[in-house]
């Protein structure tokens, strides 16, 4: 009877050891984070700045038109 309990305890302990190791490996191992890296971020910023420089006059005209419309409608003229 006593040997049966000891055997069951050993079997239970042997089941939880691999599980504990898997959890430890999951928490400790280096992770490769997917997402935007620095190079991708710099390239996106360069493209946005280039587009702003190319369409500078059109953007300024668009913004002025929007602000003129806002001010004319808000003043009630």
Describe this protein's structure.
- The protein has 77 residues and is mainly α.
- The mean pLDDT is 80.
- The chain is built from 3 helices and no strands.
- The chain has helices spanning 2-28, 38-54, 56-75.
- The protein is elongated, with a radius of gyration of 33 Å.
- The termini are far apart.
What's the short version?
The protein is mainly α and 77 residues long. 83% of the residues lie in helices and 0% in strands.
| Number of structurally distinct domains | 2
Outline = elongated
Strand content: under 5%
Report the radius of gyration as a whole number of Å: 33 Å
Helical content, roughly?
over 70%
Query: Largest sheet, if any?
Result: none
Number of helices: 3
How far the N terminus sits from the C terminus, by CA atoms, comes to 99 Å
According to DSSP, the number of beta strands is 0
What is the N-to-C succession of helices and strands? HHH
Averaging pLDDT over every residue, what do you get? 80
Oligomer: single chain
Q: Pairing-aware structural class of the strands and helices? A: mainly alpha
Catalogue the unreliable spans: none
């Amino acid at each position: 009877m006593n040997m049966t309990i000891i055997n069951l305890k050993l079997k239970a302990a042997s089941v939880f050891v691999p599980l504990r190791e898997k959890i430890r490996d999951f928490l400790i191992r280096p992770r490769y984070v997917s997402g935007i890296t620095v190079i991708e971020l710099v390239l996106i910023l360069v493209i946005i700045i280039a587009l702003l420089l190319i369409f500078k006059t059109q953007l300024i005209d668009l913004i002025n038109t929007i602000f003129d419309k806002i001010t004319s409608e808000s003043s009630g003229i």
